[in-house]
Amino acid sequence: MYKFWFSCLLGIISLNIYSQDEVVHSIYFEFDKYNLNEKQAQETIQFIKKIDSTRIQTVQIYGYCDDRGKDAYNFKLSTNRANTIKNKLIANGITNKIIISIEGKGKIMIDDDVLDNIPEIRSKNRRVDVVLNLKPLPKIELPGVYKTLKKNMVIGDRIYLENLLFDRGSSILLPASKKELEKVIKELQKYKNLQFEIQGHVCCTPPFQKEAIDRGTKKRELSVNRAKAVYDYLVSRKIDKARMTFKGYGNTKSLGKEPQYDRRVELLITKN
Fold first, then answer.
1. How many whole angstroms separate alpha carbon 93 and alpha carbon 169?
2. pLDDT tens-place string over residues 72-104
3. pTM exceeds cut of 0.85
4. H or E stretch including 177?
């Protein structure tokens, strides 16, 4: 029997400060198949109906296969899957002219460090991703999110450090990041009562793969390592260990902006 996993990120405002302008909907196929059964077809139609069509700017459709089989066959199969979804979208009101990409990507290789749940991973690689680029919603500014530390911060306040960024797949602090941290250190020395959690984040992983691989360690621990890199730097600059903890959140707290902005670390106030 076909299996269908429905993934829709409609209008989610991640961290409550930036509007989401991309929606990804994934349709999963049975091994060696590219047709939809009735249930899949109806769920795809329901997905289309939930979209505010006035916000859609472009549609991109990408087909994939699992890691088995010959490359030429997999490219053809993934392309057929993409075209099946394209035809379903057009038949249900999506204008052909806004579909800017229809591409079969072929097979998705399984990471070398993955030993468990390989059948499940393969089933999720047999899919089509529909990427809708939407006109952004108005930005929402809410209390509790700041760019610098302040005197009267309360538990739950978050510090988004714009220049505390990383290269793709890396947990190594960039020179600009260290410069940003030096500013934070001065504030932490001034407001010695504040305690906080250092939160690491990543971008660009599939929805079902919450964490990314650190290319330095070859392990799936990138967001944790980014948080620890900041923790270690603050410790080296004489910030008391008792004031801080660190934790990795993977891709679960996207800002909804360009990918580089999700390769980041934030501070969450835990005690004032």
1. 39
2. 999 999 999 999 999 999 998 888 999 999 999
3. no
4. helix 175-190
